[in-house]
Amino acid sequence: MIGLGLASSHAPAIFCPPEVWPAVYAAIPEYTKKSQPAGAALETRDVIEGYLKRVDTAFQKLRAELAAYKPEALIIVGDDDRHMFDESNMPAVCVFTGKEVWGSTAPYYMKQHPADSRVTIPVHSDLAQVILRGLIKRDFDPAHSSVLKNVGDPEGGVSHMVVYPAPKLYLGLDIPIIPIFLNEYNPPQPTGRRCWDIGVALADILKDRKERVAIYASGGLSHDPFGPRAGWVDEPLDRWVLERIEQDRGEELAQLFSFDSDTLRGGSGEIRAWIVAAGACRWAARVVDYMPIHHAKAGIGFAYWPARE
To answer: Angle 168-297-162 (CA atoms, 0-180°, nearest 5)?
Structure first.
């Protein structure tokens, strides 16, 4: 059964030391630099160091919840972000069923060779197959892959939604993972309702299984790192999302992505992963922290759905 839910942002900056943050912010496209929010100039080195302390504290809380629950598998939901897929094959949903994945935990802003931070993470293949068959039985049409074949990033490995948070969240806890990739940036993108239904289906598939399973939504919140809203954060949207899960009103998130919005384009599409986790848990979450950070080019959020037996 799924008895614990976790969710966090995975913006590259939050895994980089403070001296790298100016380079992260400088990567904003030239056509957006003239319209940056005034608050960005207030994010000094001291402010950035304060943000990083809060990030570490939040990840420590999520890791403590995960360690205490002792799951036998961790479902990780998020975007492939063109690591495995491109226009030749761009599935809306893909369950990874192989034995392991590998990737580099250092963000590309660190200028390290990918091999220097490479990790290999075991996958719970048997349970992944159960999920794959269960989704098909419930009228979903997921793709699946048992081979990590990198089209977009041959040396980087699996999507950063898996590897960037890994050292802070689950490496060292001896928990195999099950990556579920949602197409959050590129068509075809599932609607909020579809994401909610996937979460509900995951809970139903696993409800009678003996394995203890946790689910982790990796990504978000509002951001558009290389688009026209780069550097801006939609704090009202982010707080609305956090309030819905905190008040056990997660199904209201299914309204998202049923309409077009400049704010919901780009990286904000990663909120879909939070909708899946909310659908899988369907009890009140606890918000650990939230920071609208311009230099990270994202609304940075952390939350968990407390463990249930």
So the answer is: 35
What is the Cα–Cα distance from 135 to 124, expressed in whole angstroms?
A: 17
Count the Cβ atoms, other than its own, within 10 Å of residue 210.
Answer: 7
b (16+ CB within 10 A) / e for 78-95: bbbbbbbbeeeebbbbbb
- Cα–Cα distances in angstroms (integers) from residue 196 to residues 1, 39, 92, 183, 277, in the given order: 17, 34, 14, 14, 8
**Cβ atoms of 216 and 75 closer than 8 Å:** yes
The number of residues in the chain equals 309
Q: Is 112 left (phi over 0), alpha (psi -120 to 50) or beta?
A: beta
The residue ranges of the chain whose pLDDT is under 50 are none
pLDDT at position 255 = 96
Q: Look at the pTM and tell me if it is higher than 0.90.
A: yes
pLDDT at 152: 66
> What's the pLDDT score for residue 232?
95
Q: Which of 236, 242, 252, 239 minimizes the C-alpha distance to 303?
A: 242
Using CA atoms, how far residue 182 sits from 150, 185, 250, in Å, is 16, 9, 18
Nearest C-alpha neighbor of 47 from the set 21, 10, 11, 16: 21
pLDDT for 146: 92
State the Cα–Cα distance between residues 119 and 105, nearest whole angstrom. 7
Q: What is the pLDDT of residue 151?
A: 65
Q: How far apart are CA 97 and CA 148, in angstroms?
A: 10
Domains, the chain, ordered by start: 2-305 (3.40.830.10)
Which 3 state secondary structure label does DSSP give 124? coil
> Exposed, middle or buried: residue 275 (CB in 10 Å: 0-12, 13-18, 19+)?
buried
242-246 contacts, C-beta under 8 A, 24 or more apart: 242/287, 242/290, 242/301, 242/303, 244/278, 245/7, 245/274, 245/278, 245/284, 245/285, 245/287, 245/303, 245/305, 246/284, 246/285, 246/286, 246/287, 246/303
Specify the 3-state DSSP secondary structure of 186: coil
